[in-house]
Write a structure and sequence with these properties.
The complex is a heterotrimer of chains A (368), B (354) and C (289).
Chain A (H helix, E strand, L loop, with lengths): L2 H23 L11 E6 L9 H16 L3 E6 L6 H12 L4 E4 L5 H10 L4 E5 L8 E6 L1 H15 L4 E6 L4 H17 L4 E6 L6 H13 L4 E5 L4 H9 L2 E6 L10 E7 L2 H13 L6 E4 L6 E3 L9 H15 L10 E2 L5 E3 L7 H5 L15
Parallel strand pairs in A: 1-2, 1-3, 3-4, 4-5, 5-11, 6-7, 6-8, 8-9, 9-10
Antiparallel strand pairs in A: 10-12, 13-14
Helix pairs in contact in A: 2-9, 3-4, 5-6, 5-10, 7-8
Chain B lengths: L1 E5 L5 H25 L4 H9 L6 H26 L7 H18 L8 H27 L3 H21 L34 H18 L1 H11 L1 H7 L3 H28 L10 H11 L4 H25 L3 H18 L1 H4 E5 L5
Antiparallel strand pairs in B: 1-2
Helix pairs in contact in B: 1-2, 1-13, 2-12, 3-7, 3-10, 3-11, 3-12, 4-5, 4-6, 4-10, 4-11, 5-6, 5-10, 7-8, 8-9, 11-12, 12-13
Chain C lengths: L2 H30 L7 H19 L2 H25 L4 H20 L13 H20 L1 H11 L1 H6 L4 H27 L11 H11 L4 H23 L6 H21 L1 H7 L13
The chains are: A alpha/beta (368), B mainly alpha (354), C mainly alpha (289).
């Protein structure tokens, strides 16, 4: 080792010590003094995905606006649904957050794990089913929106063939397909539904391919249960009709878009944060439908839909809200022809939550 | 002109200096980027490198994250030393999780100290089996392992997907795509109360030490090195090429499989999609950063793990988006890889046209 | 099924397969020169986002194409500098390039997600993909430069002693690969699914990488392979829509399984693989060594 190198090495080490020392010395974070409540969010994707995470972020911003300076919010985006999630959730809990929303199903056990360690912090887990004293769960009855679009689709289709792009065969998606089909076949017994599972929530290219395949097979309406607006765009290009998902997609396909099912979390988030501010938060299980405003229909496209049909759709919305219409009102048969919901009754939440069968009339099998 | 001249032997000094140099470059360019983005450079760098490990929990998390990376990387070094480009450790990890996790699910309600060792062994076997497919394909059919290992990684992920959606779905889980939780006997013991660092760390350290021993003290390790460095020499020396290929794959597969079962029986506790945040792919970078050497791999795994934790903290405390974290991580890697040059080469300023 | 439907299916396959061809043919040239660039996914993302953002700002498809190509040259030029001048490990550098590309693309595109644009017709680029493949094939078979690139990939030491500038040739080959990846990205965000979404390449870079080996470094076979990959994906969607259901995961495995099987068949012939696989792939070159 030459002398110069030794010198360089010592200089470098010295510099490391000085810089490191600076960091350590300044590593004192200011202590929060105000009594403002901190609300944290864990996101599965980027807030700009224009789908699932985007709508949660819209909810967060709405809450901020409503509650003003009594709260402040933080989010961590792109948190994978594995062991990393515990650390992310825990960091929010540790850094003084009073209420933490974990916005994807597979954060379930991770949320519970952190909640156990921080009994004073309150947690809200989206779409899960495990609750404790400081963990609530919340989800939306999106299938109610599917009933409305099913009704519209049944009336609007000319080829009697509707293309349905589905993500993964989980109860949430199957429930949507059934609700859609029940409503569509009620107004149009000849309606047929073609389903393509793309096994992703998020791949614009693949979603467009699926939409084009369905259109090529004669579908004149495209329904999606995936996250991007590619299917709606493909429909626009091919000159057929479509429904959007999660957020209002009108801008991307103005001539194809009839309406979207929107996820609206703002009211719920505001109410829960308010409960924290007022100190009366309790653990609850919320499965909110159109009546709570969690599920909303985007403005109906007047260029495509007749005033009459729009009025029908709005009336259907109202009757879902007041409970006179239920998406799964009996009699409902499964594909084997067995009665699963009797005439005069409706499917209970347990059946809906774990729904893994198609109703009678869907000419397809649930992939296993 | 500056020309690059090989050193006779690797420079020990540069071995230590190069990473320090890289870190300085990163700090410098990182500061510029953060300032450009409108964040305070000092605060950002502090959040990235100091804040994540400023308490016991942070240090424990660093180890939780580094454990699978180091274990997979040292396994891969057996392949890379032999010039076998097994880039499908993600698949071997997944197979390990499936085999080991399968045992865990089967005995979820049994209480016995035998269950965890059985899971770990099953995990190792699962990973090794998956990798031996690659070995057989290469030996028997001369297939390119870069491609086959990548393909098998995707296939393994889809098999896991099939199992958690289908036959292994939790009967009490409302048909959501996940299995039931392993029993207490199927979980890695926690090393310190309240922290997540688990027994997998000990296994990793043992296997790292064992790998070092194999490389430096055994004939097998010597043969691996020679056949990687000079296949011709290895042929002349009469080494069994196929045996070396097979064992390199099997070892790396087994290590990745154990990392997989360590992850699911450690911090996770059940099987579902997305059990690994691309540990198998990140470990490839760790392996090369650590210069295929067990000690280097330890440091590399810690550095890479730190950049992940730093990116999370940067989001939380400074609202720096996750994407900036990725950019910064990419820079760290570029500098570390770039300055690697100094270890085996020296720069010479040429006065003449060289 | 009538002929109109078959034409429709073929149309969907062609549109979806084209980006794979662009990315794979670029990577093929880089690999022929002896450099493996695993950063395809990252370069495609950056190509896609820079094209999209430029289009939104300038409204010009031509500018979008130019800026996208430049972004590919920059990304790949940086990679080339690392692996050629700093002799960094190619596998690790390529993976790092992908991480960097994921980050920088979402940084650039942050404010442009959900901006509607008018998509461009894909057919010009579909034809272009065939032309490029044929030109690259001709280039390697008939031109002197093509032969030199092959020689560099076969044995950089002999090429060097014959007086060829190994580093320069590799640098240019990598740049070509980068430009083609960016073109693939441009095609995806402007023609195929006209939008910008983070991570919208969705693994196509890795499939393109697989294609190169699948094609045993033969340009024309890249076309064939790409259409097999693309075709299987679309045909399975058609079967699904006809009500034929498989466990979806097993069907999704098909492209990967088919690749392995084809690879086994091709690689079994040792002579053929020897004729096509660049012997110096991933091996660094230093003229002073």
């Amino acid at each position: 080792m030459t002398k110069q190198l030794k010198l360089i090495l010592s200089l470098v080490l010295l510099a490391v010590i000085i810089v490191g020392g600076y960091f350590v010395a300044t590593n004192k974070s200011g202590v929060e003094s105000s009594d403002e409540k901190k609300i944290g969010f864990i996101y599965i994707g980027p807030p700009g995905d224009h789908g699932w995470t985007y709508m949660h972020d819209q909810g967060r911003q709405f809450m901020e606006k409503e509650l003003g300076s009594s709260i402040s919010t933080t989010y961590i985006e792109g948190v994978p649904e594995n062991a990393d999630a515990v650390r992310a959730i825990r960091k929010l809990a540790e850094s003084g957050h009073d209420l933490i929303f974990t916005t994807s199903f597979n954060y379930m056990d991770q949320t519970l794990e952190v909640a156990k360690e921080f009994p004073d912090v309150k947690f809200e887990h989206a779409t899960g089913f495990k609750r404790t004293d400081n963990v609530s769960t919340y989800a939306a009855r999106f299938y109610e929106g599917r009933t409305v679009i099913g009704h519209i689709a049944g009336k609007m289709t000319k080829s009697n063939t509707i293309g349905y792009i589905a993500s993964f065969p989980i109860p949430e998606v199957i429930r949507g397909i059934n609700a859609f089909y029940l409503a569509a076949s009620k107004v149009n017994p000849d309606v047929k539904i073609k389903i393509i599972w793309v096994y992703t929530w998020y791949d614009p290219g693949k979603e467009a391919d699926a939409a084009n395949t369905l259109i090529n097979q004669g579908a004149d309406i495209i329904v999606q249960h995936t996250d991007t607006f590619a299917p709606c765009q493909a429909a626009e290009k091919a000159g057929v009709l479509a429904f959007g998902q999660a957020s209002n997609q009108e801008d991307f396909c103005p001539n194809a878009h009839m309406t979207s099912i929107e996820d609206v979390w703002g009211d719920y988030y505001t109410a829960r944060a308010k409960a924290i501010v007022e100190g009366n938060w309790t653990s609850t299980d919320t499965w909110g439908g159109m009546d709570t405003g969690m599920v909303k229909m985007s403005p109906y496209n007047e260029k495509i839909l007749s005033a009459e049909l729009i009025a029908e759709a709005k009336a259907l919305e109202e009757s879902i809200k007041d409970g006179s219409t239920h998406s799964f009102a009996g009699p409902i048969y499964n594909q084997a022809g067995e009665l699963v919901v009797a005439e005069g009754s409706v499917a209970d939440d347990g059946m809906l939550a774990g729904m893994m069968f198609y109703v009678q009339g869907i000419e397809d099998q649930v992939p296993q | 002109m500056i020309s690059i001249v090989p050193r006779g032997s690797s420079s020990q000094l540069m071995f230590i200096l190069a990473p320090i140099f890289a870190i300085f470059l990163t700090l410098f360019f990182g500061a510029i980027i953060f300032a450009f983005m409108g964040y305070s450079p000092f605060a950002a760098l502090k959040i990235f490198f100091i804040s994540p490990i400023s308490n016991a929990y942070g240090l424990s998390e660093l180890l939780v994250k580094a454990t699978p990376l180091a274990l997979i990387a040292v396994g891969l070094s057996f392949c890379f030393k032999n010039n076998i480009y097994n880039i499908g450790a993600e698949g071997q990890l997944t197979m390990g999780a499936i085999f080991g996790g399968g045992v865990g699910i089967l005995f979820y309600d049994v209480n016995s100290f035998l269950i965890l060792p059985m899971m770990i062994i099953a995990g190792g076997i699962g990973g090794a089996l998956w990798a031996s497919i690659l070995a057989l394909l290469k030996i028997k059919f001369n297939t390119n392992e870069i491609l086959t290992s990548l393909m098998l990684a995707y296939i393994a992920l889809l098999i896991l997907d099939y199992l958690v959606v289908g036959p292994w779905r939790d009967p009490d889980g409302f048909n959501f795509p996940k299995t039931r939780s392993f029993g207490e006997s199927g979980r890695m013991p926690i090393l310190f109360d309240g922290l997540r660092v688990h027994f997998g760390l000990i296994i990793t350290l043992i296997l790292l030490a064992l790998s070092w021993f194999v490389y430096s003290k055994t004939m097998f390790g010597y043969q691996l090195k020679v056949s990687g460095y000079s296949p011709k020499a290895a042929r002349f020396a009469g080494f069994n090429k196929n045996f070396l290929i097979f064992s390199a794959f099997a070892i790396s597969g087994a290590f990745a499989g154990i990392a997989g079962i360590g992850e699911v029986s450690g911090p996770i506790g059940l099987l579902y999609r997305d059990i690994s945040p691309n540990y198998g792919f990140t470990a490839i970078i760790v392996c090369f950063l650590g210069r295929l050497h067990p000690v280097g791999i330890i440091f590399a795994s810690l550095i890479i793990a730190l950049t992940y934790l730093g990116a999370e903290d940067a989001q939380l405390f400074l609202q720096i988006p996750a994407s900036v974290g990725f950019v910064f991580q990419g820079l760290v890697l570029f500098f570390l890889l770039g300055t690697d040059l100094l270890v085996n080469f020296k720069l010479r300023l040429n006065t003449l046209n060289g | 099924m009538d002929s109109a439907m078959i034409i429709g299916i073929i149309n969907i396959i062609i549109i979806g397969t084209t980006p794979l061809i662009f990315a794979a043919i670029g990577e093929l040239v880089a690999e022929k020169s002896g450099v493996l660039n695993l950063g395809l996914e990252g370069m495609m993302l950056v190509g896609a986002v820079s094209a999209f953002v430029t289009l939104v700002i300038t409204g010009s498809y031509f500018m979008a194409l130019i800026v996208s190509l430049i972004s590919g040259l920059l990304m790949s030029g940086f990679f080339a500098f690392l692996v050629l001048y700093l002799i960094a490990n190619q596998v690790a550098s390529g993976l790092a390039l992908t991480i960097f590309g994921i980050g920088i693309s979402s940084m650039i595109g942050k404010n442009y997600i959900g901006t509607p644009i008018e998509g461009l017709s894909p057919y010009f680029f579909v034809i272009m993909s065939f032309v490029i493949v044929i030109l690259v094939g001709y280039f390697f078979k008939k031109t002197k430069t093509g032969l030199i690139i092959k020689a560099v990939g076969e044995s950089h030491n002999s090429a060097h002693s014959l007086g060829f500038n190994v580093i320069k040739i590799r640098f240019l080959s990598i740049l070509f690969g980068g430009a083609m990846s960016a073109l693939a990205g441009f095609y995806i965000s402007i023609c195929y699914a006209p939008m910008w979404q983070e991570g919208m390449i969705a693994g196509r870079g890795w499939i393109a990488l697989a294609l190169v080996v699948f094609a045993t470094w033969n340009p024309e076979r890249v076309l064939l392979g790409a259409y097999i990959f693309g075709g299987v994906a679309i045909i399975q969607m058609n079967l699904q829509a006809f009500g034929v259901k498989f466990p979806g995961q097993f069907f999704n495995m098909m492209p990967y399984l088919v690749t392995i099987i084809v690879l086994v068949i091709i690689s079994g012939n040792k002579l053929r693989i020897k004729l096509s696989a660049p012997a110096c792939l991933t091996i660094p070159f230093n003229k002073n060594q």
